[in-house]
Amino acid sequence: MFFIKSIPANIRYYLRQSIVIYLVDCFFLGGMIITLSLISLERYDLHRLEKQLANFSHAKQGADPLNQLIEGKHLLLGRYQLIGLLMMIITIILVGILAGQAFKKLRQDIETFSSAAWPQYKIVNYYTLIALCILVLASITVIVGWLVLNSYYWHGLEVVNQRWLQKPFRPVQGPQALQPLFKNHLTDFSSRSLLNPVLHESTKQSLTNQVLRRLWLPLLSLIVPIFIVGWYQVNHFSKMRKL
Amino acid sequence: MLNKQPLRLGEVYFSQPEMINQILQSAEQPYMIDYQMPKILPFATGWDNLLLPSKQVIPALKQLIKQHLKQVRDRLGTELTVVDQFWIQLIRGLASQHQLIVINHFLDELPPNDARQLLKDVKQVAAKWQIVIIITTNQEAIFNNFRAQVLN
Description:
The complex is a heterodimer of chains A (243) and B (152). Chain A has one domain (2-242). Chain A is built from ten helices and no strands. Chain A has helices at 2-13, 15-53, 64-105, 107-115, 120-148, 150-165, 179-182, 191-195, 201-214, 216-242. In chain A, helix 1 (2-13) crosses helix 2, helix 2 (15-53) packs across helix 5 (120-148) and helix 2 (15-53) packs across helix 6. The longest helix of chain A has 42 residues, at 64-105. Chain B has two domains: 1-30 and 113-152, no CATH class; 41-97, no CATH class. Chain B has a four-stranded parallel sheet. Chain B: InterPro entries: P-loop_NTPase (IPR027417). Chain A: This is DUF975 family protein. Chain A: The chain crosses the membrane at residues 20-41, 82-103, 124-149, 215-234. Chain A: Keywords: Membrane, Transmembrane, Transmembrane helix.
């Protein structure tokens, strides 16, 4: 009962700090959704290209640019995955530092819980639960906003990805470079759609589901450092008190 | 003033703050009630601030809570007077079954009437609950005054 009543009261009392944590959560989740979307988009593109490549014989004249295109896509996918990993590591460090500072500020409150004979795990759980509530609020804001603007989002991301991000990794700059490949060959796609495919609504939905399924890792990276730093700080304060 | 005498349960003692660590040779850590750091959660009400550890303790403490916290149950920690904060901390100490309670500087900071009343109540609590309460003060005059008016 105390937890239920106290958590909103605690958030309200430390409103400024709570808003900062909320914004950090929103910012990171937004960034991770974009990175995960780019990874899913590139994976989808790569998978589609490989399937389309199967239509041509490797010996066929003009197939080289297509192979180079696939290599370029592999490279870009690797870059996106690296960016995602780096973002997670930076966030874990940043959240850890922020949590350390927050627990130092909350020292007197933690002493109060200790004076009421609360065990360490209960104090850490209490603060982790507060952080979790803020994270849930931030997740709802970001995910609902993302789902509402989902169609525009994927369209925008597709355009940005094709026009700006893929360009340095693309050896083939125009559909005309692939013309020899299509000569005397019957396919259900054109050289233009091979280079710049258009995402259908069902594909957008499937990519959205993929991103949502992978979102648990960024969510964990926002809460686990708080739990670990909380344990360390509460334990440290308890030792200091006994000295 | 307290001077390495054996502490008897149910009694109130006075000491200078710096002497506490030298005098106390108890294995048990005393429960500290500090005027400077009152250990009150600013966002919780007087009732929630008690943070009682188990339901079993409540009936025994009920009378004390009723007597001293009745008016402040719904008031936020930030709105509590120092005397209310003191009672919350003392009840919390009793609930966690501490036998040795040290009250830092509290009487020095209160108006004389409040301090006198507080000391009378604390004396009763110490006797009723069979605990040792040590009150620290920097002013010999306060101690003498209270000894004349309350302790004797």
